């Protein structure tokens, strides 16, 4: 829990605010100057002993529960619905050029116009439409739309009122590296995760990132006809696109599209820059799930709050307000100097790594996932009940399990014929037995993935970005997935008399940790689960102890690499004053190999950013936006070494967390078996 511990752990901590007049302006000041509210909250930078840097929100005075901490009006947020509204209004001739309510432009933007020129909005909307789609929603993936919106505002440079916010984004703000969301990790580190389901998800994300950033965008914005071979992605078809919230597909008209003028002006968007924008979108957007048009939004300053879990550990929450305003409130007493934290959602480490580029140790929402089919259930329960002749599942058990779990009834897990899935993904979790829910899980509301905050009665719900993993983590975990427990309870029954009773019960009721059908049966089930957890643990090539050792040397590597970067980094001569002096030159852990300095004529300074080639951002060519310096501010080899070291350490941390989760699950089932056995003895 790096960030949670950061206030005490950091050896250097100071306000991120630079002296007045420097660039970029402190976010707190910028927000207040343009209609936002900031009450007793400040942004701090923290430097860990490892050399890693991060930022966090800190209370500058005491707060009572319910206090408003930050409020950000819609025009100060970076959100793609603004683009959609502007384009649609232009198309239907209503002449509305931007989503900024009348009268707020001046307030929010100062000299820069909040109106989005109709032609540019229309060009962006066309791009949105070409993005890969989620098969579940059929809509272009929001992460890509938000990334394009971020790049669009970046390309506008001083013409965008959001430039001061952009300058604080990780990867642009000096010393703050781009989050290493899993799709940006090096391949060798991905292999070291030792966890197939996550590795597959990361490969799919990498595929789509490459496809869009490297092929699709250049074609759509570069004046070329769609090239041959681009149908490949669509025909591959098997790509599960977590970024696209499901199975990703090509945009509907991609193959027939002729590119138009780039909405990014002179900003050359390549795979690296696009990857940065997607990582920013994934790691710091809030979902607005209600309201006239669901959208995602980057909310300045509010997006500086770090994540803690479980939910009770965070001291602030987000609420939506009227006119798209997003606000942060204290949800408990906060003392001056406390870190202000949010719970992004009930994310397991799989989701955290995919969406945010870090893991929590321990993570109360973590889970070990595996695919369960009828064959696995059959082999698990063999000899424990069921058909007296074969010792396997009797026909009625198979039917009941298939029906309750939505699985295909065939022994080999042959999906389809009866409408059931071939397999479902289930978990063993690290929830300690004593913390497991006491009531049936069925009593819990179904999870809305990523839902982070209670909505006000009449206002839009606000949620932190959903994790992109394969399983939406629910609000409450029990040590064993209720569906797995239900399957084992049904599969080990000796007596068909249970069938009538179980038919009317939900899978959550049958599989509730707190309930059981018969004590001796439950003891056997716990023994089966203990054997399962042990077998899964043994399938890892390394043990917990080996991982711990590796991690301590990996941490040394990270620190050494960070130190090397700091030593070899030469701040660009023409570089802007950094966000704070400590941050100078420390952006070297960003995965990007070069930096260029971009000057913002409106605010009289330059700050480092990272197009993939120095000088590729040419505001002059576009006749607007940023102009480019050519200073290189870090040693690419040292930066790459630091990124490699960080990835390697994160991979080991992830798999260590997974094994710890399995170990805890094992402890929970063994404890339950013992408890039931002891009860049996007493009676
Ligand atoms: C919404 S941003 C929070 C602000 C961020 N710290 C910054 O400086 O921009 C989310 C990112 O913060 C970092 N983060 C948040 N919570 C964290 C935690 N508990 N441990 C480690 N990193 C965390 C991760 O890099 C994540 O991608």
TrEMBL record:
CDD domains hit by this protein: SET_LSMT
GO term, biological process aspect, one: methylation
GO molecular function, one term: protein-lysine N-methyltransferase activity
Full protein name: SET domain-containing protein
PANTHER family: SET DOMAIN-CONTAINING PROTEIN (PTHR13271:SF140), UNCHARACTERIZED PUTATIVE METHYLTRANSFERASE (PTHR13271)
Domain SET stretches: 39-345
Ranges where the record places region Disordered: 1-21, 94-113, 242-261, 571-590, 595-634
Originating organism: Chlamydomonas reinhardtii
Gene3D superfamilies: Rubisco LSMT, substrate-binding domain, set domain protein methyltransferase, domain 1
One Pfam family, short name: Rubis-subs-bind
Record bears the keyword DNA damage: no
Record InterPro entries: Rubisco_LSMT_subst-bd, Rubisco_LSMT_subst-bd_sf, SET_dom, SET_dom_sf, SETD3_SETD6_MTase
UniProt xrefs under PROSITE patterns: SET
